[in-house]
Amino acid sequence: MHPRSTTMQALLAITALAWAGPSHGQPAPATAAKHPIPQALKFEHAEDAERLALLAKRPGAVGAAARKAIPLFQRHAAREAEFIMAPLALLPDLADGKVTPDMAWAVADADRVKAERERIFQEHTEVTDALNALISAAERAHDQDAKEFAEAAAADSLNDVEILEPMVLVIGDYLRGKLPAAH
Amino acid sequence: MTKRFLSVGVAGLMLAVLPVLLTPAAAADPAAGKSVFSSTCAICHSIQAGQNKIGPSLFGVVGRETGSEPGYTYSSANMNAHLTWDAATLDKYLEAPRATIPNTKMTYGGLKDADKRANLIAFLATLK
User: Fold this and answer.
1) Least CB-CB distance to B107: which of A136, A150, A161?
2) Statement: B29-125 belongs to CATH 1.10.760.10
């Protein structure tokens, strides 16, 4: 996993993972993103999903820990895809000073992130627990690949908490202030 | 008479010492705490001095103030908590981080087992 990748990536990754591994994962989430998410995140999530899917297929404690992590990642990834990540796709336009009325949906998404912030944080803690279990199993099995995945996913989780989720709130506030002028 | 005083004295001494023996700190096992650290903390925290990872280095954490490890970017919540990481504060925080320091960014739900917390704190206390 790339160090810059976000928790979201790992989470979405898990989603893809779950899709890829029907024998181990949950059914794919029914929630479809209403708006596109940044391609970079989508790509990284796919990579992460693939890695977790591979870990889940391993025998022993590492595979078991990875399989337990899947539904947690999947749940969080579904939430991220539904309303957390899409506003981030507006950043390039916003950075160029472009604000258009059709961006108003992002305000609602940001408000939802704000309202559900503690719940989202709680999900991060559950993911951390799962990653702790994975890394413990990886160390016992001398599985460096699994250990690296768990460490990177934990870093992604902090990335979400420190940067991405606050950024969505900032986007919402920014649009709220700018949109009346855009009408 | 002397025997009686001696017995009373011994009994008194036992009564005085017993509560200390029964406290979690007295029963804490740093070696067991190291195991707890490895399984629940090491993914984010180093025990090497000055080596910050996702979380700050825990070398020397016992006795230092919240938000004070050089080179680590803390949440404003931890920066402004102005707590000292003594055994009691660590115990409370480790049990429920977000309840103890609201808005801390540590994505850990808490260590609910009091014995494990005591062992972990005993281990952290050795990191000097």
Assistant:
1) A161
2) yes
